[in-house]
Every structure is written in structure tokens, then in C-alpha cells.
TrEMBL record:
Single GO MF annotation: DNA-binding transcription factor activity
HTH merR-type domain residues: 1-71
PROSITE patterns assigned to the protein according to its UniProt record, in alphabetical order: HTH_MERR_1, HTH_MERR_2
Gene3D superfamilies on file: 1.10.1660.10, Antibiotic binding domain of TipA-like multidrug resistance regulators
Any coiled-coil regions, as ranges: 77-104
Record-linked InterPro entries: DNA-bd_dom_put_sf, MerR-type_HTH_dom, MerR_fam, TipA-like_antibiotic-bd, TipAS_dom
Full protein name: MerR family transcriptional regulator
Amino acid sequence: MSYSVGQVAAFAGVTVRTLHHYDKAGLLSPSERSHAGYRLYGDADLARLQQILFYRELGFSLDEIAAILEDPQANALEQLRARQRRLGEEIERLRRLAEVAERAIEVQQTGVALTPEERFEVFGEITFDLSYATQAELKWAHSDGRREAMARAAAHTKEDWRRLMGEAAAWRAELLAAFDEGEPSDGERAMDLAEEHRLHISRWFTSCPADMHRRIADDFVTEPRAFALVVPPSQQRPGLAAYVGRAVHANAARHDGGRTHSLSEEHS
């Protein structure tokens, strides 16, 4: 069966101009002619067109496609492997770009009035986790608390952020020391560190009552991004997030008369 240029263009999803270009380039020339001299494509031509479109979709140039079709046994496998490698590299490049874009969006959402250079200088490893401090970390809080945290974060000056991050670094050093020295998570030292963390949130972002602090601590255990805000991955130890969670719960119980709260109870 034979098909006109228009018919082939319609069901192949290309333009008539594209088919004319393939013909002119010697890549795909119609093998038949009508009685009136019009070009017609046969089944073999359509099969070749399908191959061309397949290789074009993979990003091959017309010259590369011509070389493959000229001797498919000699060229196709090698060319496809090379293209697979390049596509893998491009996928990785796009993945990195997507991560950069996501991080940039997160930084912009914090409302922090610092240049990118200042953010790197002040925040270091946790630069791109600030949105978690002001959004995800507070997801269990009422909306007024979230709005307050965002507003206060946006109002912080560079010097405020320096002080805030300095406080956090000093607290983190004490936490790691307590953990490494085997202090119990429900001991006074660990509970005091939990209380310091609660007051830090209240001082810099929004009021953080015990129930809210418990929910934040539960996020440390279940959400790696939340705990990375408190302890960057390079400084983390196995079991440290759970340790902080237990310390926060123990500290909260200390302040509400010893009543403990299970994770299921917190989320019921």
C-alpha cells in the first residue's frame, strides 16, 4: 500500500516540510510515484521513517542517523550505547539542576533578606534547610504560629542570623558531647539540652510550648530533613535523632508533671 506525503505526515506526527527535508538530505526518499508523478511512500519507507524518528527522539543528528541506517549492523549498537551514556550524563546534570532550583526556592520561601554569598557565609551546611525551620518543622503548629515564625525569620538581620547560628552551633556541640559520652536521653543533662532547644525556637521563631516541641522532636525521628536542620549530616551519628527525640519527650514530661506522651498519642 502507498501513501502520499500528506498522509504520512499526518499519521507520523511530522510536517510535510520535514519529510521534504529528509528527502533532500537523502535520508528518506519515497520509493514510488503516482501516475501523476506525485511521490508515494511504501511500507518499507514507513519502516525507515519509524527508525529515523526513533533515533531523532534519542537526540541523534541526521548525519548520525544516516550513518546508522547505511550499515545498521556495524553502527547501531555502538551508537546506541554511546547515546545511552550521554543521556545518563544529561539526566544527572538535570537532576543536579533540579536540586539547585528546589533549594533556591526553599531559600526564597524563608524570606531571609541575605545575598546568596551571605547565606553561605552564615548558614554553611544548613543553608538550604531554612524553609524547614520556618515551615515543615512547624507543620503541627496552628497557623498563627507559622505566620509568626515566617515573619520573624524575614525580619532577622545578618547579625541576628549570626547570633542564631552561633547559638545553634554551641548547643549542637554540647549535644554531641553528651551523646558521645553516653549520657542517658532522660538524664538531666540531655533534658536541659532539650529545654535549650525549645527556648531557642521560642526566642528566634515562635512560641514553642511542650506539646509543639514533642511534635518537632517526632519529626526529627521520621523526617531526615528536619533533623539535618539541627545536626548537619556530616556531624550525625546513628541513633542521634532518636536520642534527641527521647530527650525532648523526657523534658516535656518533666515540665508537665511527669506525664509521658507516646508517638501515636501525639498524632491522634
